[in-house]
TrEMBL record:
The keyword Membrane appears for this protein: yes
Keyword terms of this UniProt record: Cell membrane, Disulfide bond, Heme biosynthesis, Iron, Membrane, Metal-binding, Oxidoreductase, Transmembrane, Transmembrane helix
Name used for this protein in its record: Heme A synthase, cytochrome oxidase biogenesis protein Cox15-CtaA
InterPro entries: COX15/CtaA_fam, COX15/CtaA_HemeA_synthase
Membrane topology: Multi-pass membrane protein
Pathway this chain belongs to: Porphyrin-containing compound metabolism
Source organism per UniProt: Nonlabens marinus S1-08
Membrane-spanning segments: 12-32, 114-137, 144-166, 172-194, 214-234, 254-276, 288-309, 315-335
UniProt xrefs under Pfam families: COX15-CtaA (PF02628)
Main localisation: membrane
GO annotation, biological process: heme A biosynthetic process
Any one GO CC term of the record: membrane
Amino acid sequence: MFTEQNYRRWLRLSILVIYLIIIAGAVVRMTGSGMGCPDWPKCFGYWIPPTEEAELEFSPNTSYKEGMVIIVDQELRVAKESFFSTTSYSESDWKPYTKHDYAVFNKFHTWTEYINRLIGALGGLVVLVAAFLSLQFIKTRPKLTVLTIAALLAMLIQAVIGKIVVDTLLSPVLITIHMIVALLIVGLLIYLLYEVLPPDSSYKNQGRLPKFALLVILLTLAQVALGTQVRQFIDHQVDLFGYPLSSEWLENGPALFFIHRSFSILLVLIHGWFFYEAIFKWNHPIRSYYTLGVLIIGTIISGILMNYADFPFGSQAVHLVLASLILGLQFYIWMRLRSARIDP
């Protein structure tokens, strides 16, 4: 079990699951299911959430456990302690839920958010196994062990941020932080995977390619940061106009939106030069660059759809997921270039 090959397998699996978490989070946002479970870590006070609203109504002659939730007069009520109900509702048995005042049950939203949480828990377990396997390097390559444990701790921090996001009724700023932490975890896991991969002699450079690849990453991060600001503006517009009036969301949009849109042209040109240098001049393996190019085209198409087709369903989620994949692949290529042989 304690082999470098197994460690690599679990790192790959960890990266895959983290991206599944990002996709699940995007689906939650796309469907408006963020408050499908208004409490954390349970969902309406259950480890397995209800499937019908009737399960959240007061029921006479029923055994309630401490922390279980019901909805009374469109407000959440939490059982103060375990008890067996009488024939009528008694206020003394319950206390109000004080984190927020959201008390809506929607079966689809609840189970969408619940599945998102299950995938998050799976991610924590997978990274935990990777951290356990990293103990084999504690004497020979302690950096691997320390950084893998750091990734596990970051997953725990993600869980705490997820709780705060729910408690604050989906604060846009905290949602952005949640996304950034996920990207940092992906980057850390990709770095660890690179450290235990065998050398690849097919990558070579003239000395400037790694620096240029790093510049591409930094510019993409700047573009993502601009995009998060635009998304926060759109969240505010949704609160004002609602989903049926999506055509109004970018009316009189902020200057950041136009900068974000124009900056994408610069990024395409820079990537084009980067691809030319890497593929045609230095004969690098084409698959990574081809995949990166396809992802960039996908983000452009999804951005155009959002801007000119009034945010068709799923376009925001696709845009976000593709951007996260681009950053991960850029980072992997950069790591490869850093260790590539330098040809005259």
